[in-house]
Amino acid sequence: MTDMDTRVAVLGGGSFGTALASIAADNGFHVRQWLRDGALVESINRDHRNPRYLPDYAINPRVKASTELEWVLEDAILVLVAIPSKAFAEVVRQARPWLKPEQILVSTTKGIQEDGFKLMSQILEDETGFAHVGVLSGPNLASEVAQKQLTATVIASHDAETRSRVQAALGCDYFRVYASNDRYGVELGGALKNIYAIAAGMAAALGMGENTRSMLMTRALAEMSRFAVSQGANPMTFLGLAGVGDLIVTCSSELSRNYRVGFAMGKGQSLDEAVASLGQVAEGVNTVKLVRDKADAEGVYMPLAEGLYQVLFRGVPARDMAKLLMRGEQSSDVEFVLPREDVKQDRRQTEAKNGG
Ligand SMILES: NC(=O)C1=CN([C@@H]2O[C@H](COP(=O)(O)OP(=O)(O)OC[C@H]3O[C@@H](n4cnc5c(N)ncnc54)[C@H](OP(=O)(O)O)[C@@H]3O)[C@@H](O)[C@H]2O)C=CC1
Ligand SMILES: O=C(CO)COP(=O)(O)O
After folding, report:
1. Which atom of ligand 2 is nearest to the CA of 140?
2. Most buried of 2, 32, 161, 254 (most Cβ within 10 A)?
3. Is the CB of 88 under 6 A from ligand 1?
4. For 191-330, which CATH class?
5. For the chain, what are the domain ranges?
6. Cβ–Cβ contacts within 10 Å for residue 274, how many?
7. pLDDT for residue 316 is more than 80
8. Residues 12-68: pLDDT tens digits?
């Protein structure tokens, strides 16, 4: 079988699923996309447009949409799952009767499931028991991808066939696909950065400057890395596209839905109003709750996640929280170089010397 015989199935009719379906079709693959909304299916098949999620972009006419999972999945070699985390497991279960062990299953979703604190590729693995499982993540704002703006992503899998099939299906002159074998690290990076994108949007709405955003992103990376280490993940992965790359874009762009939720709240909207006016998924809202609770339970120091949680769910004004965070205990810059504990020890020694 040649690469071009690969049939690609995309589950999900949102902005990212649609953008990825169109790339694979541009690359010459046969692509079938599953959506639950019959009217959108008709628009994609007739007008080659997705008026709800990507109204301004033409979709490659080789993308064929359907509400029938069986038809979409038959003969598919590669299955991309682009469904928000809250519905991810439910959709995988719906698809399960037509999934086959030889298929390659890839999550493109950057979120965490509350039940069991599971990442999406874990759900793919647990629900199917199949061997070819991966995750796609990187600085990939869907509307820019649809515009064919140059960018790159990461396909992470322990399975070499998964990595090479996805590179072949999606890699092109505007979308580079880098490989990683750290599935957990890549997936964790994509989920965690959404938290800080909300905070960055809020800071921008409050008129905070570029220095502030730079500090926020850098401390976010420190906090994400601390969490990764606590979960047994490799923090070095965060130096790549799925960590720092995605953190930069989502904390800097009004195209990010997470950033926009933060921005709307910084301008005075409630969380419910901000989410409702978005009309699309902002995974960070759920992720911050889950990560904060886990960090709390496991004693992981995550002041930004805790602060954002207090603003989102406990009604603490964002500006007061920013002040509080700035007055927090001064600590180490790069903990892998100077451990936080050593800074505390220095302080204790100085205070003892001064008779404090
Ligand atoms: N958009 C982006 O820029 C990027 C997004 N991602 C990730 O991709 C994931 C998917 O997001 P994206 O495409 O952006 O999402 P959107 O919010 O644009 O769309 C969500 C899609 O999922 C569908 N959906 C939701 N619940 C269900 C369900 N129970 N059954 C069937 N379909 C359902 C929606 O269908 P309906 O319209 O019928 O509700 C819609 O087609 C997100 O988790 C995000 O983290 C990753 C990189 C970039
Ligand atoms: O992950 C993304 C870009 O890489 C998209 O971010 P949002 O979900 O915040 O739009």
Report:
1. 4
2. 32
3. no
4. mainly alpha
5. 3-181, 191-330
6. 24
7. yes
8. 999 999 999 999 999 999 999 999 999 999 999 999 999 999 999 999 999 999 999
